[in-house]
Specification:
Growth Hormone, Chain: A; mainly alpha; globular; 416 residues
Length: 416
């Protein structure tokens, strides 16, 4: 809540203070709890497919329904928190998500599994929707970027941790125990968030708004050609990215490769190339301009896809590293540029970027599986390269050249 009358306005936790450190730790826990659960099944899809008797594309729905649930829930969670408070709402979201996650391993059939995953994703939507608003209200402005970085680091590490933990456990005890292990760790992280999050002092409750007022803030962000181009990047590039990681495990688990689930999980270490590229592109964009770096990063994705069409495992892994580095570079530029282009309604612009991002993950991530199971990896990779090329065309045609926004980006990217 806001400070009472007569008390100086809350200036936020200063960097290095106990409250600031607790906020960093709490947001890191929230990121781990969210994205460890969201993608924990991605490396286990071949095991899910065999045990439940479903196709590769059907198995990938366990990822798609969760991301659909998250995408649809981002805006509703943000409006709830305007009245109920950031910490209370995030706490409810992370507890609900953990409860649904603990129920996932007990799913008696594929239909119940999809239902629980959809509910889990919808609950998880309350974290990315509110984390940045929470830290913006509770830390000093000059420290907000560092606090946001802790949250983004938590999301990245959470996504990687969930995949790496689930694979070896699933090799030993099946996919259900693999997901249970991740959900138990997420429960510990959720408890960490609830215990560490400082009491909010900068939150001011907002009155409820009618549909017209909400729509009035959204429509300008949907009429801007540059913003539409960035939403296209989110949809097409994230869809391509998730598709590669959804189905590469099926390719490498089959003859002649015969990778076990634990080895498939190690593929996600390629994410570390994205950690490097996402840091590099900021400096490159200052020198060459955002659009140029965005196009070059997307071109790297296309080149990486082409290399993965080769048969030798070292070539596949090299292509995966290049593809992943290109995606994170492009995504870092596009997500940051969204906030810079939205001179008004930045929260709504960011929410629409998130919506396009997770919608691409859901729709393309599922439909690419139909192509993979009917025509194989090469055909799917070629189709994804075409989608990335379409993203490049949209960027080249609709985004401004040069460096129209030379200031540093502060809008963090959605997590993985």
């Amino acid at each position: 809540m806001a400070e009472p009358a007569g008390v100086p306005p809350w200036g936020g936790h200063r960097q290095g203070s106990a409250g600031y450190r607790r906020m960093l730790a709490a947001l890191a826990c929230a990121g781990v709890a969210t994205f460890a659960q969201l993608y924990s099944l991605q490396g286990l899809l071949p095991l899910v497919s065999r045990e439940l008797g479903v196709t590769a594309a059907q198995a990938s729905l366990t990822i798609s329904v969760a991301t659909v649930g998250l995408a649809l829930a981002v805006l509703p969670w943000s409006f709830v928190s305007d009245r109920w408070g950031r910490v209370r709402t995030m706490g409810l979201a992370v507890v609900l998500a953990t409860l649904f996650g603990l129920l996932v391993p007990a799913s008696p059939n594929f239909e119940v599994l999809l239902l629980l995953r959809g509910l889990e994703g919808a609950a998880l939507g309350g974290i990315p929707a509110l984390a940045i608003a929470y830290l913006t209200e509770e830390v000093q402005p000059r420290s907000a970027a560092a606090a946001a970085g802790a949250y983004v680091a938590g999301t990245t590490l959470g996504g990687l941790f969930g995949r790496l933990l689930a694979g070896p456990v699933a090799d030993l005890a099946g996919w259900r125990m693999g997901t249970l292990a991740v959900s138990l760790c997420a429960a510990v992280a959720a408890a960490g968030f609830l215990a560490l999050a400082p009491k909010p002092r900068g939150f001011v409750p907002q009155p409820g708004e009618g549909f017209g007022a909400v729509l009035g803030r959204l429509l300008p962000q949907m009429r801007s050609r540059p913003l539409l181009a960035l939403y296209a990047q989110a949809f097409l590039l994230m869809g391509s990215f998730v598709s590669v990681y959804n189905y590469l495990g099926f390719r490498l688990e089959a003859p002649p490769y015969l990778f076990p689930a634990s080895a498939v999980a190690l593929l996600f270490l390629a994410y570390l190339s994205g950690t490097v590229s996402s840091r590099m592109v900021a400096g490159l964009a200052v020198r060459w301009g955002r659009r140029t770096v965005l196009l070059a990063s997307t071109g790297a994705m296309v080149a990486g896809l082409a290399v993965t069409m080769a048969a030798p495992v070292p070539a596949i892994l090299a292509g995966l590293l290049l593809f992943t580095a290109g995606f994170f570079g492009a995504h870092s530029i596009a997500s940051g540029w969204t906030g810079a282009l939205a001179t008004g309604g930045r929260a709504q612009a960011a929410s629409l970027y998130n919506l396009a991002y997770y919608a691409g993950s859901s729709l393309i991530g599922w439909s690419a599986g139909l192509l993979f199971q009917s025509l194989g990896w090469t055909a799917m990779a070629a189709a994804l390269a075409i989608l990335a090329a379409l993203a490049m065309l949209a960027a080249a045609a609709m985004l401004p050249p040069g460096r129209p926004f030379p200031h540093a980006d502060t809008q963090p990217a959605p997590g993985h």
